[in-house]
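Batch manifest line 657
LIGAND: magnesium ion
JOB: complex structure
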Amino acid sequence: MGLLKLKNINKRYTLDNKETFHVLKDINVSFSKGELVSIIGESGSGKSTLMNLIGGLDSNFEGELFVNDKDINKFSEKELDRYRKNTIGFVFQSCNLIPHLSILDNVTIALTLSNVSKEERIEKAKVALKEVGLEKHIYKKPNQLSGGQRQRVAIARALINNPDIILADEPTGALDSETTEQVLNIIKDIASKGKLVIMVTHSEKVANHSSRVIKILDGKIIEDVQKDKKKVHEVKDELANTSVDKRKEENLSFISAIKLAYNNMKQKLKRNILVSIGVSIGIMSVIAMLALGNGVKSYFSDMIDSFMNPLVVEVSMKQEQSEPTNPAAAMQSMMSTTPFEKENIDELSKLQGVKKVENGFQYITMPGTNKLTYKDKSSDLMVLASMSSVLTKDNVKDGSLPGKNELIVNDSVIKDLGSDVVGKTVTLNAVIDGQPISGDFVISGIYTVGESNQLSDGSNLAYINYSDIETLLSDAGKELKPTMVYLVADNEEDASDLKSTIRDLGYSGSTQETMGDQMLTMLNIVTIVLAGIAGISLLVSSIMILVVLYISVVERTKEIGLLRAIGARNKDIKRIFVSEAFLIGISSGILGTISSFIISILVNKASMNVFDMKVMNITGGYVIIGIGISVIVSMLAGLSPANKASKLDPVDSLRTE
Ligand code: ADP
Ligand code: MG
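JOB STATUS: finished
ARTIFACT:
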């Protein structure tokens, strides 16, 4: 019973012009273990084609090809990969060693594809290399060996998985006669150990070494001669099982794929560094834009918070929803506020979490309406507002919060009245609800919204106690109605709940807060737009990765063919290329993050000088986003080249020069 049996094998190539080319014609032959078969024939007679069929590199043929009574033409893709990996050892004319791997790694690559442990790999490789007499050269690179030595490495590689069948396609074709002799002796030795060796050769002399010679002409076997029966090794039955079954199914691990990818990338270090820098610029700009947006945003929200007591909720009266039609009307509706009625106050004071309700007002008026006079100086008030719990002692410098018959003013009023006015009595003339009033007040301090804030500097404002104005107005026979109320809550949680409750009831919240919210929304949009623009550079860099990996696929076509020949699955090839993309992604992500940190330090230093604030704020989240985007973008870009690589036809790939 033969190890290998070919029955009515026919192979046709379909050419570009749809014609078929009949290469192998009705091949019927069988081989046993221990045979050393030479196939001779003219160039173009179909020898390599036949070897590729036997080796499972090309399954597009007619007929049956039995290996241990299993028809490999019926194998699934997976079984075929396993067959190539474990049953077949290939030796090519041009040794097809991977130039950037050491001799050791070239030999162990087939084991790496089977996820064999490193120690076992090295141990087995050393045994195989010793068999071909190269144990002293294991750390050299292929180009540091002679042609004969290289071919011996290729033989060691073919032997490493202990295959049953060695296929050697003109193994001595490129060697001189002396090294030919060496290589032939090794091959004879292999056959004598019970393997089936099938060797293609041009040379009669080489053929003389073998136990059987098959002549092929025009795709037909024209002669099949047993030369020396004694050379056929007797194989014991227990050895007759192919290694396909004795090995547990294991494949290239992710770690090994990354290692292989890393090795590949080291070869084109400059190129890969440049690509990584390119990608990292994209990542850096995305992180920088997000950080800038975040920094500016938190600056503003800090500022808003700084002049807001978090326990106090400011409420304005329900607004009649008539859209102002022109700017003047809009101005008018902004400045005239509807007063609260008693039922409004009742409604608000019953709300969950309200501890106290304070009445208030805020009159924004044209110059000349409300003003303060001190000696011969006067100051027009743009804003006259009531004191409330919103203001704390943090809002006052050079003095204290206003008590009865006191008020506080801001710096721009101080500019009008002179800096000696603090502690002095001034006269307030105002028109409230159409009623002119007048009274004397002591300036108890200067209003401020915090160190870094200069927003209020432009407009003159004064804060005064609600009850003082109420008294002045009632002296004139009028009742003061609050135009805003302050709800004082027990805790911040209640306060923030109240903010949404009053909106649900139709009241408006604090104008400053509303404006602040709008500003934050705008900042958010601007941040997203900026990050989006930065994202375009990511698109460019992903195209760069795509191109570089495509070039890499083309450059390594032959290597890919070889890997397929020694049993790499489509998946393994894909995995190696995706791993390369992953490595580019992760290194650019890290590089991008580091450079965005450097940028933020520089920018913040500059902005501290100019605006007295840090404009960039990188968070841990951005670092994760940055690296994550980098990896995802790179791997997406790597998918298509990886697919291309994995779909390469092994026979065609090996043929490329
Ligand atoms: P050799 O005996 O020299 O190894 P091959 O098996 O390589 O010959 O080729 C046998 C014949 O098949 C040659 O005539 C060759 O031109 C043809 N051939 C090989 N590969 C292809 C292919 N992919 N498409 C068309 N014809 C091919
Ligand atoms: Mg050939």
